[in-house]
Amino acid sequence: MFIRFKNEVESVLKTALKDASFKLLPIPLEESEHADLATSVAFRLSPILKKNPVMIAGEIKEKIQLKENTLIDRIEVAGAYINFFVGEKYLVDTLNAIQSDDFESIVTNAKVIIEHTSVNPNGPLHVGHIRNSIIGDTLARILRIAGYDVEVQYYVNDMGRQIAVVSWALEQFVFDGQKKSDHAIADVYIKANRVLEESVNKKSEINTLMQRLEKADKAVIQRFSKAVQLAMDGIRETLNRMNIVHDRFIEESSFVLSGAVKEIVEDIKKTGRVKSDNGALVVDLSDFGIDKSLVLQRSDGTSLYSTRDLAYHKWKAQNCDWMIDVLGADHKLISTQLKLVLRTIGLKQPDIIIFEFVSLPEGSMSTRRGMFVSADELLSEIEKHAYEEVNKRRPEKSEEFKKKVSQMISTAAIRYDVIKISADKSTVFDWRDALDFEKQGAPFIQYAHARACSILKKAVEEGCDFENADVHLLNHENEKLLIKKMAYLSNVIHTAAKELKPHILAIYARELADAFNQFYRDSPVLQADENLRRSRLMLVRCARRRLRITLDTLGMAAPEEM
């Protein structure tokens, strides 16, 4: 509903500016603590018209004509600001829209491909990886609800040097079939690296494997595929624990075997930027201010991850309208190089979300040397502490209830604590803060939903009447604030989608839960007289729907009881 209101404000301002013979586009609109929307357009026009901005604001207001049935209730000038306020119609229409599941989605046929996680299958996900997964998954959910046709992809590195090492290691060391498969892969990978660091001859065996793969040696392809599948089975299991789903897993080798890598190399050669560097082929990007050349092909003729990634992006560019990649801060250079090369050969470039790293208070992680905290360990530890909290608060409940709720809370705690921070800021994940019911984190938001469910359940048990609610009775300030906050969801979704900033929705979720709790404290529901009770129950039902859709879009469960 806020989007409709914003569009109406913009429309009347355009007309007023035209009638006043003023020209300024776009028209600045700001959210303000003094109004539902405000414009500083008079300040922008002042140097152009060489007039006092206060006078300009007054002239514009005089030209504004409100149509019937508008969501704009009144307009006030404060200094040089023009303030717009919603009225009762806005509140009524908001509640009606929520009850009829009318969400202001973008009507679009745009196909979006989001690539996220894409971790090398040489071990389990660790805490440093999960920020990538959570950002990508949340963004995909936001774009879907905004109206885009979204496909989420995991780009599987099934032929790089690390996978060659894993493939080699599986024939050198015992694979522990009792362990989760990705953890067992990490064990042999770590052992292999220790051996390879001490033996030049063993390293040459890895190079030979890579060359044979590029020549489509079926035996080597099968070896690599087996290694990758073992790791990916475990990685998928971990992603599922975090409620993260990919639509497609695209194998890197497919672009070599199909000839797409050779094609992209030829495309790049035609730009005149490719030169030889000790037998290797590199792309010169110095005229773009990038001193380091992009290596396109090794001296032994094998391709690199970057080459295959270029072929993958060419394929994506041909199969979607919008490409989005989620990458860690260590990919800043390579992502810049990739975009520039795509630009030089006339292909669309991806929007790239670069995220800073998340760590634990205990310190850093490195998969190669075996010094890491796996996402599985982290999830199990948080779930254990969540169970302790649920058991303390609800000792009378069954084991099944406690385990189910603790799983919901622990997954949400990780997802929320990661996503609430802007991607460009580094963060330290502390499970104590994430699980704190008293702080405004995931349990706080989930508890607001559970409280709404509890009120509605009790109302049904007491035989309360839900029909013929009178919205006009909802005139308490906190009731209005809650309705306004619910009306704002579609604007948050659209802004987060447009700016690729999923943390905006996380902030909104906390504010929505807080608005509901303030309403609950100040406006008794079941104790109110019959007419007011009906109205407040309707408001609770709407709040439950908005909380549920917000939690779902964040990839968090919406418990009915906690």
Model description:
This protein is of the alpha/beta class and 562 residues long. It has three domains: 85 residues, 2-Layer Sandwich (Gyrase A, domain 2); 243 residues, 3-Layer(aba) Sandwich (Rossmann fold), CATH 3.40.50.620; 179 residues, Isoleucyl-tRNA Synthetase, Domain 1 (Orthogonal Bundle), CATH 1.10.730.10. Helix 1 crosses helix 3, helix 12 packs across helix 13 and helix 20 packs antiparallel against helix 21. About 1% of the residues have low confidence.
Chart the SSEs and their pairings.
Blueprint: H1 2-19, E1 30-32, E2 35-39, H2 41-49, H3 53-63, E3 72-78, E4 81-86, H4 88-99, E5 111-115, H5 127-146, E6 149-156, H6 161-170, H7 181-196, H8 200-214, H9 218-241, E7 248-251, H10 253-257, H11 260-269, E8 274-277, E9 280-283, E10 294-297, H12 305-317, E11 322-328, H13 332-344, E12 351-355, E13 358-359, H14 375-393, H15 399-419, E14 427-428, H16 431-434, H17 442-461, H18 477-487, H19 489-499, H20 503-522, H21 530-553
Parallel strand pairs: 5-6, 5-11, 6-7, 11-12, 13-14
Antiparallel strand pairs: 1-2, 2-4, 3-4, 8-9, 9-10
Helix pairs in contact: 1-3, 2-3, 4-18, 5-19, 6-7, 6-8, 6-9, 7-9, 11-12, 12-13, 14-15, 17-20, 17-21, 18-20, 18-21, 19-20, 20-21
Q: Gist?
A:
By secondary structure, the chain is α/β, with parallel strands linked by helices. It has helices spanning 2-19, 41-49, 53-63, 88-99, 127-146, 161-170, 181-196, 200-214, 218-241, 253-257, 260-269, 305-317, 332-344, 375-393, 399-419, 431-434, 442-461, 477-487, 489-499, 503-522, 530-553; strands at 30-32, 35-39, 72-78, 81-86, 111-115, 149-156, 248-251, 274-277, 280-283, 294-297, 322-328, 351-355, 358-359, 427-428. It folds into three domains: 2-86, Arginyl tRNA synthetase N-terminal domain (Gyrase A, domain 2), CATH 3.30.1360.70; 117-359, HUPs (Rossmann fold, 3-Layer(aba) Sandwich); 375-553, Isoleucyl-tRNA Synthetase, Domain 1.
